[in-house]
Amino acid sequence: MAKRKTHSGTGRIPWRRDGVWLAGDTHAHYRNVGVERLAAEASPFCDFIAVTSHSHRPNFWRAQHAAVVAARKAYPNLLIFHGLEWGCPVGGHATVLVERSRSENAILSEFWRTYDGWYARSKPNTIQDAIAGLKFLAGVSHRTESTVILNHPSYGRPYTVDDMRGMYDAGALCVSFEGACGKQSGTPGSEIDPIVRKVGGAYDVLLSEGRRYGLTAVSDFHSHVSEGGKSYWPGEFAKTYVFCPERSCRGVLAGVKAAATYFVHNDIIGPLRFTARCGEREAMVGETLRVRQGAEVEVALDCIERSPIDRVEFITNDRSPSAFRVVRRKRRWRIGRWSRFSFTVSNVGQDFFVRARGVARGMRKPCRDEPGDMWFYTSAVLIQVT
After folding, report:
1. At 118, is the secondary structure helix, strand, or coil?
2. Domain segments of the chain as ranges
3. Could you tell me if 304 and 293 are in contact, meaning their C-beta atoms sit under 8 angstroms apart?
4. Sign of CA dihedral 344, 349, 351, 352
5. Which CATH architecture does the domain made up of 271-385 adopt?
6. Which DSSP letter does residue 22 get?
7. What letter does residue 294 receive in the DSSP assignment?
């Protein structure tokens, strides 16, 4: 497939100099605990959460907005989205998030009635039906901003690569997916979605085509592990960090749509900087670095380790558009509290991407005794030869 320009994260992020990183969860359910308790338990871990009732449970969905409004008053320092887990006409589920506004409930309700594959009597099941839903959201952007995040893409009814191409190409709305699904209490270590975990998998193919999908990790909260469930509280185990222009729901949406994200399990790292540099020019995650043929690019990941990181792996196609490789780094440089892992690409001859991941070994999850490997993953930096 021919290379194409990305509409997500092209060039520089406008708020690069004065943006703020916010931590949160874009996929959680309230029906077993109520929105106010969900907010109370998430508050120590998160700057934002999204309450996303299943579309095929209409009683909970209809009651959700009033419960979210009440929780916002009770927890004013927590950004709370009124969202929807969409029964997407293709693949499985997707999260629909809209900006906090007077029209948020009316817009989501109309979307649910008209475009939801579970609710609509016609049971739409084609990519055209999914794109029609995205176009509806784009058409009301003058009233409220929105985004769509594909949920657990490899599980249940999986999304195909063509599904993901079609939804990305429909406009700048569906530009993220869950790189790690929720309900992670059942295994000792991190569970990463196969399309992200596999080098050369669907995610790398999409990035190599210029489709810059961003990554999230979620709780998919239903019931807490300490109360007989399979989930952790939002942010307790999985956190998505989003680089935002401001601390608001609108700011979170902007950061997600810029693909300026990374996710962490078990808080193995805190702040992170992931960049590609050529001379005086630098691009961060979610941006594109433009260089000349033959240039040298330094790729660096700086982080504050909260648990000892065993290694960082950079995944890239710097040598050939369809040949993906891993550059492993165990050695790090110390810069104050920060650890730096890096590598250099010399004599650049083509467009390429770089994404990164790191692992801490022998860590224990909350409420579990067995040790396992915990991971963090970044979204990508793109490098474009001009």
Report:
1. coil
2. 20-268, 271-385
3. no
4. negative
5. Sandwich (2.60)
6. E
7. T
- Is residue 306 within 8 A of residue 269, CB to CB? The reply is yes
pTM for the model stands at 0.95
User: Residue 97 has which token pair?
Assistant: 């998030």
Closest CA to 206 of 6, 385, 383: 6
Q: Is 127 a residue whose pLDDT tops 70?
A: yes
β-strands 311-320, 238-244 pairing: unpaired
Q: What is the pLDDT of residues 154-164, one digit of tens each?
A: 988 899 999 99
264 three-class SS:
strand
Distance (Å) of CA 35 to CA 63, 67, 133, 237: 10, 6, 27, 19
Please name the residue that has the structure tokens 């109360």: 227
Closest CA to 377 of 238, 183, 219: 238
What's the start-to-end Cα distance of the chain, in Å?
A: 20
**What residues does 381 pair with on adjacent strands?**
354
Any idea which residue has 């990508």 for tokens? Answer: 380
At the fourth CATH level, the homologous superfamily of domain 20-268 is Metal-dependent hydrolases (3.20.20.140)
The count of other CB atoms within 10 Å of the CB of residue 311 is 15
Q: What is the dihedral of CA 65, 71, 75, 78, to 10 degrees?
A: -30
The residues facing 24 across adjacent strands are 48, 240
* % pLDDT > 90, the chain: 85
* Pair of tokens at residue 327: 């550059």
- Which amino acid would we find at residue 83? G
